[in-house]
Amino acid sequence: MAGSELTLPAAPARAPEYGHDALVVCDNVVRIYQAEGIEVQALQGLDLLVAEGEMIAIVGASGSGKSTLLQVLAGVDAPTAGRAVVAGNDLGDLGRAERVRYRRHVVGFVRQQTARNLVPYLTASQVVDLPQTIAGVRKAERATRTTELLEAVGVAHCADRRPDQMSGGEQQRVAICVALANRPRVLLADEPTGELDSETAQEVFDALRTANRDLGATVVVVTHDAAVSGQVARTVAIRDGRTSSEVLRSGEEGVGVAEEYAVMDRAGRVQVPREFREALELTARVRLALAADHVEIRSDRPAADPSTGEPR
Ligand SMILES: Nc1ncnc2c1ncn2[C@@H]1O[C@H](COP(=O)(O)OP(=O)(O)OP(=O)(O)O)[C@@H](O)[C@H]1O
């Protein structure tokens, strides 16, 4: 019928998937361990996004779940629930062969224990060559890559030395080269400076920064070392298996103004730090109020009468 053309309303725009443009996506990740019949929830619905090219530090008390998170991202441990995706690889859903390929090519890993990162009877050149040989890279290309990596992090002089002929800092820098050998998108480091004095720790941190800036790896480093976390643009704190706060630093080298943010998950949950809860005796139930530009959280106990100090 002329003049009465049917027009349908436009389909509602679909919200982009959480973390659709991030390189690392943790979406409500849960990891439960069973130990002697006891269940330990190491990760309790952790959300985290890391953009390609970022270098972030992860901090948190002992037992908060930092290592578990890295093990999941490394493809060593699978999430019990939730979604962990790195460079498009869904880590809850990798077959055996895919997992091997993922660990060989997509992520590199550096451990705290310097000795465990290397092989006692191999020189630095040989140990950086090894993952490339396993990946089937041609000899000439391997040699170029090995030299380039050792030079980039300042340990070219260690090329023909075995671990017992290197300092702890040199060993860790060689370990970073091993982790980077097959050009992973993401470099994961679990307390890489934990066994080192502060000067040597700085050299290792500088090598991580080189990996990030010059060699193109996105870096996630777990650390207790405030000197390390103070030098990255974003530090994420984990508390009780969840990301609880983030410190963003602006300015050259990440040093400059630092501002702390609490992290709110997509269900609107925010973790109130224990010091705050204890200071105001906030327990299971709190009062929330919306003000013009902020939200107030108050104890559910009746407020004290300022003249008597007694509850009103
Ligand atoms: N394989 C495992 N079996 C049983 N429980 C585990 C296992 N791995 C970790 N846990 C438990 O999970 C929780 C988180 O541990 P995780 O090692 O991730 O913490 P963390 O923050 O890295 O601690 P730290 O700083 O001491 O290394 C702890 O309670 C720990 O005991």
For this structure, the CATH topology of the largest domain is Rossmann fold
Bound molecules: adenosine-5'-triphosphate
SSE pattern, N- to C-terminal: EEEHEEHEHHHHEHEHEEEHEE
Q: Any low-confidence stretches, pLDDT <50, length ≥5?
A: none
The total of helices stands at 9
Profile the largest sheet. 7 strands, mixed
Per CATH, the class of the largest domain reads Alpha Beta
Number of separate domains:
2
Domain SpoVT-AbrB: 259-302
GO molecular function: ATP binding; ATP hydrolysis activity; DNA binding; transmembrane transporter activity
Keywords: ATP-binding, DNA-binding, Nucleotide-binding, Transport
Domain ABC transporter: 24-266
Question: What topology does this entry show?
Answer:
Layout: E1 24-35, E2 38-50, E3 55-59, H1 66-73, E4 81-86, E5 89-90, H2 96-106, E6 107-110, H3 114-117, H4 124-134, H5 139-152, H6 168-180, E7 186-190, H7 198-213, E8 218-222, H8 226-229, E9 234-239, E10 242-250, E11 257-262, H9 274-279, E12 286-290, E13 295-299
Parallel strand pairs: 3-8, 3-9, 6-7, 7-8
Antiparallel strand pairs: 1-2, 1-4, 4-5, 9-10, 10-11, 12-13
Helix pairs in contact: 4-5, 4-6, 6-7
The protein binds adenosine-5'-triphosphate (ATP).
Could you please describe the fold and organization of this structure?
With 312 residues, the chain is of the alpha/beta class. It has 2 domains: 51-78 and 94-262, P-loop containing nucleotide triphosphate hydrolases (Rossmann fold, 3-Layer(aba) Sandwich); 276-312, no CATH class. The protein is 28% helix and 27% strand. The protein has 9 helices and 13 strands. It has helices at 66-73, 96-106, 114-117, 124-134, 139-152, 168-180, 198-213, 226-229, 274-279, and strands at 24-35, 38-50, 55-59, 81-86, 89-90, 107-110, 186-190, 218-222, 234-239, 242-250, 257-262, 286-290, 295-299. The strands form 3 sheets. A 7-stranded mixed sheet has the order 6-7-8-3-9-10-11, with helices on both faces. Strands 2-1-4-5 form a 4-stranded antiparallel sheet, covered by helices on one side. Strands 12-13 form a two-stranded antiparallel sheet. α4 (124-134) packs across α5 and α6 (168-180) runs parallel beside α7. The protein is globular. It starts with 23 loop residues before the first strand and ends in a 13-residue tail after the last strand. Bound molecules: adenosine-5'-triphosphate (ATP). The site of adenosine-5'-triphosphate (ATP) has 12 residues, from β1, β2 and α1.
